[in-house]
Design brief:
With 606 residues, the chain is α/β, with parallel strands linked by helices. The chain is built from 19 helices and 27 strands. The structure holds 6-O-phosphono-alpha-D-glucopyranose.
């Protein structure tokens, strides 16, 4: 959601900015723009895809050694050229790009208008341009400091002044920003892929920190303008992981990376048939004393949390409250001593999830986070972080991110269950062994690709779908349904199979497609009855079942069998055919799989 790139150095600024913005396309956007400082600041921006901006730039001869760029995901004001960033001060001497939301912008706008400032856009960001102008004398840092004192909300800001041709200035709060360290050049960006071609070394800016960036220097300051020393981070993955490597789409590449990612994630925690969470600050005694676990997340991470709740409750007999982050933060949650909070987030930057974390922490609750992006805000704000090690996930629809979250939740359930003596040693070791075979089982599911393609060809033009299951299969159905709707735009609903009768079965008519996920022995009979109920009303049934449920062939229009492994882990397998199916259905419908309309990968606004 919104991407920022900044460059200062002797190379082709325009191309570096454009390339950087393209690498951030996955975050989701609906317009883009760049500002380059030469004798004056030139801004070019355009609605729609970056290629529109690129085409417009071909008609302009803009050059310079310093520039900032932005992809905008509209929040305040429609996605048009005027509302796109960068935003100018009225005298065109200051240009600003911003990711986040200035919550008190209306109040500030009114004050500035009273002082004579004229606004041309509907955005909250334009306030920053004029406010900065109102404070600016000659000291860029001082003006920024004053702006930060006035604005409320979240921001990653990058600002250029035409009077300072050798520097730009940045600040952040609750929106990601990194500073890439080059030689004779430096960069800023919302995320690593934007700078990876140029440097592997970078600083993370923390909340309320600011930096002045020149070609040869990066000076970072705290909120009181004290110079501070920051740790240099090194990108720990290869650039090829952030490229398509021959696949048509990142999503397909990431689906096929899952066996390797799962292996990496599991192997990092398992040694000699035991699970270790290195440097965990929570002691075994504290784990034994846990009264409640609160799992909080958004989107697919929430769906992973639902599987986690099921398995933790089963293995540990600890009650687990599962909440969507945007609900949790406003419901005055009941958090007691001896509770812990598990926060799940692929990006580590989701605004609601981060706010939920802060709320739980303020109440004195220990936070364990399951995060993919190393060093992200959620990771840094947690007491303990478990990195999923899936590598960069570029496609908006998560696949390997979700799968590795599941793996991590299984390991938490097993380890905590074992520590609390809810599962004995032989069961514990047995499950660990099964986890270590997960790579093989997932490969097995991926080998169903051709079969799934055929099914996708048959059903791709439907407009509605139901996906049903019971227990863990219901949790898997929710994720399957989200995958299908977000990339193919097919209206899809997941239901707990037993609940369908309480209203939604009214929507079943001849040829309605119902997907059934069936992997749980003790729920099989009941789930089959539910499938028969919809079949009797004309539904076509596509079933994902575990091997051994051969009799389901009798009722299925199409059926796919997945390996029969320990039931607690089946959600990791049933999701794979549904990811592939969603992908091929979307391809058949001509959808932009990696960048579905209206969606953003990293949701950094509430
Ligand atoms: C967005 C993404 C989803 C993701 C959700 C939570 O909606 O499109 O794929 O599940 O955010 O993101 P997080 O980074 O916190 O896991």
């Amino acid at each position: 959601m919104c991407g920022i790139v900044g460059y200062i150095g002797n190379k082709d600024t325009k191309n570096i900015l454009l390339d950087g913005l393209k690498k951030l396309e996955y975050r989701g956007y609906d317009s883009s723009g760049i500002a380059i400082l030469d004798s004056e600041i030139n801004i070019v921006k355009e609605k729609g895809k970056i290629v529109n901006l690129e085409n417009k730039l071909k008609l302009e001869n803009i050059q310079g050694n310093i520039g900032i760029g932005h992809t905008r995901w509209a929040t305040h004001g429609e996605p048009n050229e005027i509302n796109s960033h960068p935003h100018f001060s009225s005298d065109k001497k200051i240009a600003v790009v911003h990711n986040g939301i200035i919550e008190n912008y209306l109040e500030l706008k009114e004050k500035l208008q009273n002082k004579g400032y004229k606004f041309i856009s509907d955005t909250d960001t334009e306030v920053v341009a004029h406010l900065y102008h109102s404070y600016y004398t000659d000291d860029m840092l001082d003006a920024l400091c004053k702006v930060l004192r006035d604005i409320k909300g979240s921001y990653a800001l990058c600002i250029m002044c035409s009077e300072h041709k050798d520097k730009f200035i940045v600040a952040r709060k609750d929106s990601p920003l990194i500073i890439g360290i080059g030689s004779d050049e430096n960069f800023v960006a919302s995320d690593i892929p934007a700078i990876l071609e140029h440097t592997k070394e970078y600083y993370f800016l923390d909340d309320m920190e600011m930096a002045i960036i020149t070609k040869d220097n990066i000076n970072i300051f705290d909120r009181d303008k004290n110079l501070i020393k920051k740790e240099v981070f090194k990108v720990d993955f290869d650039i090829s992981l952030a490229q398509k490597n021959g696949y048509d789409y990142f999503m397909l590449k990431e689906i096929f990376e899952q066996p390797l990612c799962i292996k990496k994630c599991i192997n990092a925690k398992i040694l000699d048939n035991d699970i270790f969470f290195e440097k965990f600050s929570i002691t075994n005694e504290q784990i034994k004393d846990i009264n409640n676990i609160h799992i909080v997340a958004c989107g697919s991470a929430y769906h992973a949390g639902m599987v986690g709740k099921h398995i933790i409750e089963k293995m540990c007999r600890i009650p687990v409250n599962l909440d969507i982050a945007s609900e949790f933060r406003y419901k005055n949650p009941i958090l007691n001593k001896n509770d812990i909070c598990i926060i799940i987030s692929q990006s580590g930057e989701t605004a609601d999830t981060l706010a939920a974390l802060k709320l739980a922490r303020e109440k004195g609750i220990k936070i364990i986070s399951i995060v993919n992006v190393v060093g992200s805000s959620i990771a840094r704000e947690s007491n303990d972080v478990l990195y999923t090690l899936a590598g960069p996930e570029i496609a908006v629809a998560t696949t390997k991110g979700y799968s590795t979250q599941l793996a991590m939740l299984y390991m938490i359930a097993l380890k905590f269950g074992y520590i609390r003596c809810n599962i004995n040693e032989s069961t514990y070791k047995d499950y660990i062994k099964e986890l270590q075979s997960m790579e093989k089982y997932i490969k097995n599911c991926l080998s169903l690709e051709d079969r799934i393609k055929t099914i996708a060809n048959k059903y791709y033009n439907i407009e509605n779908a139901f996906i049903i299951g019971r227990g863990l299969d219901y949790s898997a159905s929710l994720e399957a349904s989200l995958k299908l709707k977000e990339i193919s735009y097919i209206h899809s609903e997941a239901y707990a199979a037993g609940e369908l009768k309480h209203g939604s079965i009214a929507l079943i008519e001849d040829n309605t497609v119902v997907f059934g996920i069936l992997t749980q022995d003790d729920l099989l009979e009941k789930a089959v009855s539910n499938l028969k109920e919809v079949k009797a009303r004309g539904a076509r049934l596509v079933i994902i079942a575990k091997e051994g449920y051969e009799s389901l062939r009798d009722i299925a229009d199409d059926i796919v069998f997945i390996p029969n492994i320990k039931e607690e882990f089946m959600a990791s397998l049933s999701v794979i055919p549904m990811q592939l199916l969603s992908y091929y259905v979307a391809i058949n419908r001509g959808c932009d799989v990696d960048m579905p309309r209206n969606l953003a990968k990293s949701v950094t606004v509430e």
